[in-house]
Write a structure and sequence with these properties.
Oligomer: single chain
Structural class: alpha+beta
Helix content: 55-70%
Number of strands: 6
Order of helices and strands: HHHHHHHHHHHHEEEEHEEH
Strand content: 15-25%
Radius of gyration: 26 Å
Distance between the termini: 55 Å
Number of helices: 14
Length: 328
């Protein structure tokens, strides 16, 4: 066994158990080490032994329940969470995990009941509101589900998953205009979530192809002529294509819907070379254009210069209106 912190911990507790086979501390901690090493079957053996010796120890009960969850035995996990709730009926971590286990066995009524109990104690838990909505959705309680998703949006107007879930429900009901409206609201509240523009274009029959971005951070912003450009990074994307940077080009009179995108992107093809190079691409009304590979360590400023170069070429812009720091 190689010397790593977890292996050292494992050896320590095993040594203690040789002389103290009923040490609750050693049994529980060895179980935790094995859990952290993803040896869930082995971890459970020690958690169960510890539980037999200390049946009301909440730490042991909780970790045994987590382990049953990892072993895809949600019914067993629920039994342990029920024991925990007898001891502490308002433990929000227990309630949340228990609701997840009910969802795994498609017991949506009990999942709903558990999320509602949790939210009375912790109404700020947006994930619980979202999951409550989904539990209602799975029971065909569509109107109630939408209200729960709207509650998420009221508490955090940038929470994209809530907009998406509402939009999908509207789409399933063939309420196209309502779906477009909720997706547009998503973009208005998080202008970098171009994934929702993609949904709008699909519903309205537009042929525009845009990067499917869920969330991002603004790195740079520039104004020139009639245009505004923003470089984003820390990008969370939907799908197989990843993005290191994207430049979004707007007409100043419409800062919601970009007219042109330049992207520094990865794909399964670039991952084969360990992402040492990424594709330099653009998106417009005509589709996706690949300009070739560039070094992956390109800085945001260097990317901005290259991206603005593509903007200049596409829109026949005079260099006179381009800020000096953007000229290559």
């Amino acid at each position: 066994m190689s010397e790593t912190p977890l292996n050292t911990e494992e050896q320590k507790w095993r040594e203690i158990l040789k002389s103290e086979p009923e040490s609750i501390e050693a049994l529980a901690n060895l179980g935790k080490v094995l859990y952290e090493k993803n040896k869930f079957d082995d971890a459970l053996v020690y958690f169960e032994k510890a539980h037999t010796l200390a049946p009301n120890d909440t730490w042991i009960l909780f970790h045994a329940a987590l382990t049953y969850g990892e072993l895809k035995q949600p019914e067993k996990a629920i039994l342990y969470y029920e024991k925990l709730l007898v001891i502490d009926s308002e433990n929000t971590n227990v309630l949340y995990n228990m609701a997840l286990m009910y969802s795994r066995v498609s017991d949506w009524a009990n999942a709903e009941k558990t999320y509602r109990k949790l939210l009375k104690i912790l109404p700020t838990d947006l994930s619980a509101w979202l999951n409550l909505g989904y539990s209602l959705e799975m029971q065909k309680k569509t109107d109630e589900a939408i209200k729960m998703y709207q509650e998420v949006i009221a508490r955090d107007p940038t929470y994209g998953k809530a907009y998406y879930n509402i939009g999908q429900l509207y789409e399933s009901q063939e309420k196209k205009d309502d779906a477009v409206a909720i997706y547009r609201k998503a973009v208005e509240n998080n202008p970098f979530s171009t994934f929702f523009l993609q949904r709008i274009y699909n519903l309205t029959g537009s042929k525009r192809y845009v990067p499917a971005i869920l969330n991002a951070t603004q790195l740079r912003h520039f104004e020139f002529g009639d245009f505004s450009a923003t470089v984003i990074g820390n990008i969370q994307a939907s799908g197989r294509i990843g993005y290191k940077y994207v430049l979004l080009l707007y007409k100043k009179e419409d800062m919601i819907e970009p007219i042109y995108y330049v992207a520094f992107e990865s794909s399964p093809a670039t991952e084969a070379n360990n992402n040492q190079q990424l594709f330099f691409c653009a998106f417009d009304d005509h589709g996706h254009v690949n300009f070739g590979l560039l070094d992956a360590d390109l800085s945001p400023d260097d990317f901005a210069k290259k991206a603005i170069g593509k903007v200049i070429g596409k829109y026949n812009l005079s260099l006179d209106i381009i800020p000096g720091e953007l000229k290559e």
